[in-house]
């Protein structure tokens, strides 16, 4: 059974979002997603300063099995990226909810975060895809 932290919000496209103390939103892919993809070999991160819309493709994770788009869970401006995963993509496999985060967004509409799934609802989505 995959771990789904209760303090995060989730998109049906398997991204997680965490509101940081400064109001920004940190984004990564879920444990379910990294498990489905397998060993990460390359991560393409968005450029800092890029404007993104909720649901817009803004990063790519590439594994030994497949390349997969990563979508912005909220609209806003990319304020930072995690250089660790660019240099060591396997970090996403090892720690998807901590050191394996991908990028941060300064949300233009903070209310969008509340429209994402909670852990229980996301776990149901992930579970339904596993069968």
Could you characterize the architecture of this molecule?
The protein is α+β, with helices and mostly antiparallel strands and 131 residues long. It has one domain: RNA polymerase II/Efflux pump adaptor protein, barrel-sandwich hybrid domain (OB fold (Dihydrolipoamide Acetyltransferase, E2P)). Helices cover 25% and strands 32% of the residues. It is built from 5 helices and 9 strands. A 6-stranded antiparallel beta sheet has the order 1-2-3-9-8-5. Strand 1 and strand 2 (15-19) form a beta hairpin. The protein starts with 8 loop residues before the first strand and ends with a helix. The mean pLDDT is 95.
Task: Provide a short characterization of the protein structure.
By secondary structure, the protein is α+β, with helices and mostly antiparallel strands. The protein has helices at 31-37, 83-87, 90-94, 111-115, 119-129; strands spanning 9-10, 15-19, 25-29, 40-44, 51-52, 57-63, 67-71, 76-81, 103-107.
């Amino acid at each position: 059974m995959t771990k789904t932290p209760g303090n995060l919000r989730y998109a049906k496209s398997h991204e997680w979002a965490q509101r940081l103390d400064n109001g920004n939103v940190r984004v990564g892919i879920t444990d379910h997603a990294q498990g489905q993809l397998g060993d990460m070999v390359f991560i393409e991160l968005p450029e800092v300063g890029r404007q993104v819309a909720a649901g817009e493709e803004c990063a790519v994770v590439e594994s030994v099995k497949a390349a997969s788009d990563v979508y912005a869970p909220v609209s806003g401006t990319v304020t930072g990226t995690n250089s660790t995963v660019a240099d060591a993509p396997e970090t996403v496999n090892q720690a998807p909810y901590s050191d394996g985060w991908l990028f941060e967004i300064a949300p233009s509409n903070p209310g969008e975060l509340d429209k994402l799934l909670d852990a229980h609802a996301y776990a149901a989505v992930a579970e339904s895809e596993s069968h």
